[in-house]
Each structure stands twice: as C-alpha cells, then as structure tokens.
Amino acid sequence: MKPLKFIESNTIALPTTDIDTDQIIPARFLTTTTREGLGDNLFHDWRYKDNGKKNPNFLLNQDSSKNCQILIAGDNFGCGSSREHAPWALMDYGFKAVISTKIADIFKSNSLKNGLLPIVVDEETLMDLLDNSGEKIIINVEKSEIQTSTKKIIKYTIDKFSKYCLTEGIDQLGYIQRHKNEIKKFEEIRTWTP
Asked: What share of the chain is helix, strand, coil (3-state, %, to 5)?
C-alpha cells in the first residue's frame, strides 16, 4: 500500500441509500484473489446494460467522473456480506475515500485494512457535499479533516491505529513486521515457552 496522507480530488455523488457489497462488486466477480481488474466491475449491474454495453446514464461512465478519487455515498454504504473485494474494487477503480453518514462496520474495517479511507459525517455535511458534487475537496488524513470547495473545515474521527497504518502505507501485518526486533528481543528474554 502507498501512504495515504492527503487527497485532493473532485467528488462523485452516488446518493443511493443502503448500497450493499453485492451492488459494489457482484458475487460472480469474487473468484479472484487479487485486486487487479476489479475496478472494471465496480457497480457492474448499474454501469452495464444486459448486453454488456456501458450505461451512459450511470455516473461512473460519464466524463465528469474520470479521475475522481472521492465517492460521496448515501446513508448505510457497504452493508451486506463481508468481502474485501468491495474496497478492492473501489480502489482499483481509483477511489481513495468514501464519505457517507453511515458506513457498515465490516466494510469500514475491510476498507481501513486495505488502504481505503471511510469517512462518516453528519447528515447536514453529507447533504452539502451531495449538493456540491463534482467540486474539488481536500482530505487531510493526518489532521482528520475535510476542506470543502468553500474552504469550510469538517473534522471526522478515525481511530489512531488505522490512521497510523493509512498514513504509513502499511496494513496490520506491516505494523507487526516493523516491530520484528522488539518481538525477537521479547522471545529471547521470556521465561516461559508457548
């Protein structure tokens, strides 16, 4: 993973509520164990028609959505079954953050472990972001704040460990590996054996 300290991007608004993980990445695309190519199937059943052609009315298929790294979503984003493929698909498409008033716990956990920043905001803030979809905002991960296009600062919460891992570009295993010397030293001086 790459360190995630600062995101400056135009936003895409998908105000639909209760977007579940099967809508994010349908189960039939879960046969892979790598992230590569999953972005092509992100929101597949909304992005593509039955004949396989792109639906020109879906926002990810519109030119204004290209290179946007921040998704503004309706309430209760990422509900449904647990699958790491959901944050993988969002990241492979190019998203670095998802903002909503509620993000499902398992999706949030999977996102943080894989380098995608899930941000929960209040309803008034979400409505403002949705109303100003397409405008550039700045997310300062180290300060846990969003700066809107009107220079308004919005604070959000994230646990200290997750923030550390995101800003350092490591996952939980990477965190443990950074402490190999301390672990080895502990193993050498312990008086008991497992």
From this structure: 40, 20, 40
How would residue 104 be classed by pLDDT, with cut points 50, 70 and 90?
very high
**Fold classification of 6-189 (topology level):** Aconitase; domain 4 (3.20.19)
pLDDT tens digits along 125-163? 999 999 999 999 999 999 999 999 889 999 999 999 999
Q: Residue 139 phi/psi, 5° resolution? A: -115, 120
3-state secondary structure of 139: strand
- Residue 21: is it exposed, middle or buried by C-beta count within 10 angstroms (0-12/13-18/19+)? buried
> Domain residues of the chain, as ranges?
6-189
Question: Which amino acid, residue 168?
Answer: E
Tens of pLDDT, residue by residue over 107-133, are 999 999 999 999 999 999 999 999 999
